[in-house]
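Hey, resending since the last one bounced:
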Amino acid sequence: MTSADTHSKIHRAIDAVWRIESPRLIASLARMLRNIDAAEELAQDALVIALEQWPLTGVPDNPGAWLMTTARRRAIDQLRRSKLIQSKHEQLGHELEQQQAWRDADLEAALDASLDDGIGDDLLRLMFVACHPVLSEEARIALTLRLLGGLSTDEIARAFLVPEATIAQRIVRAKRTLAQAQAPFEVPRGAEFDARLASVLKVIYLVFNEGYLATAGDDWMRPGLCEDALRLGRVLVGMVPREPEARGLVALMELQASRFDARTEPSGQPILLLDQDRGRWDRLLIGRGLTALERAETLCQRLGIGRGSYVLQAAIAACHARAAVAADTDWSRIATLYDELSELSGSPVVELNRALAWSMAAGPAAGLALADALVDEPALQGYHLLPTVRGDLLAKLGRIDEARIEFERAAGQTRNERERDLLLARAAACADGAIPG
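The structure tokens again:
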């Protein structure tokens, strides 16, 4: 391998490490510094040092720990230089057994111990901070996805179905607003905790979705994001065990994650749901998901409330999980659940999924009528799954030429290379006069 190849390989490794570790890094630094911009800047500094040193020394055995140590040392230096150490000493002195000057060797451990609010999870802490009520819901979610989901502004924009510039402005304004409000970097309690919970749930949901079907790039999935979302969801359930929607979201993620091994060929090519080998679905995750769903629905009954969005989506996923083969799927129940979900959410994306469900329950003509009603929906303009669904239904109705146009349109709109290849292959099948699978 040439030096250029080695250099390129190391840079790819750094990119991968950064994608995984940056949320944890920023969260930890923000807890220390109480400043999001400073935390991001120091995290970036650690990345620059890695880019300079690792091509010479090699990638460390634990690159995440290396980045964390480097960034935290610089954070401590910054605190010392800015003379914030004394103020922190005064704030925390009553919690220390001995009143003495901070020793360099003890500084980091003392900060960690004193800033711990009992939650023990920096990512979750920063997520609640980013969901502060001084921010709009859109700003809360965009900021948290950027800081903790590891998503680019482009990826967040596609998740929201809005222009990238809009998301960039939201993030800048959100950080400025938090700084001006001097928002405390802690998990809120009581009523304020409840008020922020819906935004936190939505963030976890969107992070998982981005991992389940990557917006852009060469990979069909980004399992690391799904793992982060699942971990945060499980922690959250432990914090609010009587919240049905938290359990419903975890149930949904467990059931969706159970399909990971069956969703791609060894080559990385995607396998659609109805074509998957269900023997490869993870039965342990399915069991966990069904149990979480049962507990969520039981909570709804005990509390005398209707099922929320995440509980309903988990119930839909459970219908797939309970079917040993695709032909056994209870599409009528799924379509009915989508009716309930659509009435609750009013989301055009849910309406599109509802169209697909009714196509399976009542035939492609019924589904196409529902999908056609969404063609002029502003939020779905440029959303590749609308022409994908229409192409699929047109093909099933034998309208092959129209289906080809829709698949080509969808291929031009997606940013995921694997998905584009799949859509182009379906368009090519239509051009050959065949009904694509």
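Residues 3-33 form the longest helix (31 residues).

Sorry for the duplicate.
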